[in-house]
Amino acid sequence: MSKKMHKYFLNIIKMKNLFALKNSYRSVLRLVFILLITTSVYRVTAQCDPPTITGFSAYEGSVNTSILINGSHFSAVLTENTVWFDGVKAVVTDATTSTLTVTIPTGAGNPVRVYTTCGMAQSIEYFNVVSSSLGPLTSASFTSPTISYGFAIKNGSYNGIGLHSFTNLKYADLDGDGKPDALLGRMGVYVQLNTTVTPGTISEGTIVGNQVYGASFETRYYNGSGQNLVYEIPNYNTNNAQEGDVAYGDINGDGKLDIASCVYRPANIDRLVIHINISTPGTISFSSSSWATSGKWARWVRLADFDNDGKLDALVSTSGGGGCVFRNTSAGGSVSFATLQQLSLLDAESYIEVADLDKDGKVDIMCRQWQGAVKVFRNTSTGAGNISFSAANVLNIHTGGTWHFAVDDLDGDGKLDIAAPCADGKISILRNTSTSGSLSFDSYQNFTTNVALGTGFVSIGNLDGDALPDLAFVPNGDYKCFVAKNTTSGSAISFDAPITLNPTSTLPQYTAGVAIGDFDGDGDNDVATISQYTNGINYFSNGYTGSVTWTGVTNTNWSTPSNWSPAVVPTASIDAVIPDGLSNYPVVSSSTNAQVKNLTNNATSTKRITVDVGGKLTVNGTYTAVNGSEIKVLSNN
């Protein structure tokens, strides 16, 4: 009970002649009734503000380490706070009304969202997951592609439809088992359940007839007999209807990620469809309801809280231009949206993204101009139910325009930049120079990909474990996937020359769509692409598997990346070499569990590898002492 309520009840108790009521049954009932009504009224009139996120204690960190999320209106009750790092849920270990202590989850992405019983908040700045186990970004950093077969179901029977219709590839933990599942949209919304068992390993399984066994991503749909094949949510098979796009977020605040999708063509069923998540671990299930888009084709969809009322609204890009927004009016777990609000802003069927670009606490809109520039619209909403945006700020890019773009903080200044692939093989970079209340970007600078057929899709994420996010992109009409290391220094955004992930092989068919995320659960981001006209998603697992050499240029700490060449700490899958003639030799410090595959020690017997008290060094392969040097293990004895 609050102090205010306590004082109120004491005043009632002190009323004149109160004790005269104790022998009157009717009076006692009257007093109880008064107390209940007073309590009820207080609960109804009490304010319940949605949370806000003001920042993090650190803006980078590795998986399974803790950070603080700072803000306001969090719940001091631990279990009343839910934190999502994009599509995966974090564990909250401590909570006050202004700080949450969370463990960075495997597969963490952006944005970060906090939910309480009073609503949700989205982070303004992005969080960067770093890793010391990754080496330099090379084609050797990734495995050969593993294909997740994409069979589809139409009308309850196997049809063997390929993924040529899919260009929208996203990942989110839909069943609550901690693993990001695959979402694909265009001719139906399809989900591939992530059943990865061994971290770092993705299995394509075995095809037997029309069934797939042992796949890390199970493409299944229960049809009443035999193995599940594909999840389809739902199948818009009538009148050649197609899904336009998919987005995800907790729309009704129940702690599960729901799906928003677009249906377009023909006009009589154009709509926004909301799929409410009722899944349990290992079993994916949704219930669906829809909202009409006034006869316009609904092409792309994004979820964001545009009026800061603590609920995820839906932005839809439509045919004929303009676009529309559906304001979320859900309450008490029941999902509802207000009548669509026409925006008259977006270009026809234009690709859209949403993020707070000027850091004023409101989510802004970006869209591509038809065969032209990128447009940004500042959020000028004035409160719950009053959603509005400024006129377009047109950002010119390289000749030929763009089909798709991605958003992230490329230079580490806390502002979200834009990378837009253009038609002739260049990616235009738009550096964000906005200030609160004013959107502005530097003139575009081009990153040349040397891909003659142009770049069709791009994704941004940390692939080498350092402090800056890198690029992954796929060209139009080609069979390759590329990555580029971010080499930005200060405000000059730059990238190394592109690296082909499959230099000696081709993918099954043309690539369409690319995503970055930790799909195999080993703590490092991988790359996935779609192959058109075939039945597959191609997974490139990230993990340096070469060898490293000790230099000791920084100190004697085994776990310091800069002491190794290349700058990556050995793991159970990495060989290590210790040369002779150095000043510093490695020390495995207390509480460190060091791993190495094969260890070759060329040092003389007077130069040793030392394992401190409480430390551990595991050689998973062979230890070779060329000049007789052994490993010195210290103990308490």
Task: Provide a concise account of the structure shown.
The chain is mainly beta.
Structural class: mainly beta
Characterize the biggest β-sheet. Answer: 7 strands, antiparallel
Separate helix tally:
2
What distance lies between the first and last C-alpha atoms, to the nearest angstrom? 57 Å
Outline the low-pLDDT stretches.
1-46, 151-164, 220-239
Walk me through the structure.
The structure is a single chain. The protein contains two helices and 52 strands. With 637 residues, it is mainly beta. A seven-stranded antiparallel β-sheet has the order 1-3-6-5-4-7-8, with no helix packed on it. Strands 13, 14, 15, 18 and 19 form a five-stranded antiparallel β-sheet that branches. Strands 44-43-45-48-51 form a five-stranded mixed β-sheet, with no helix packed on it. The radius of gyration is 28 Å and the shape is globular.
Features:
637 residues, mainly beta, seven-stranded antiparallel beta sheet, 2 helices, globular, disordered N terminus
Secondary-structure blueprint of this entry?
Layout: H1 3-13, H2 25-45, E1 52-56, E2 60-61, E3 66-72, E4 82-85, E5 88-95, E6 99-103, E7 112-116, E8 119-122, E9 128-129, E10 146-149, E11 153-154, E12 157-158, E13 168-172, E14 181-186, E15 188-194, E16 206-208, E17 211-213, E18 217-218, E19 231-232, E20 242-249, E21 258-264, E22 271-277, E23 286-292, E24 298-304, E25 313-318, E26 322-326, E27 341-346, E28 352-355, E29 364-368, E30 374-377, E31 393-395, E32 406-408, E33 417-421, E34 426-430, E35 445-448, E36 455-461, E37 470-475, E38 482-484, E39 499-500, E40 511-517, E41 526-531, E42 536-540, E43 547-550, E44 564-565, E45 575-578, E46 587-588, E47 593-596, E48 599-604, E49 609-611, E50 616-619, E51 623-627, E52 631-633
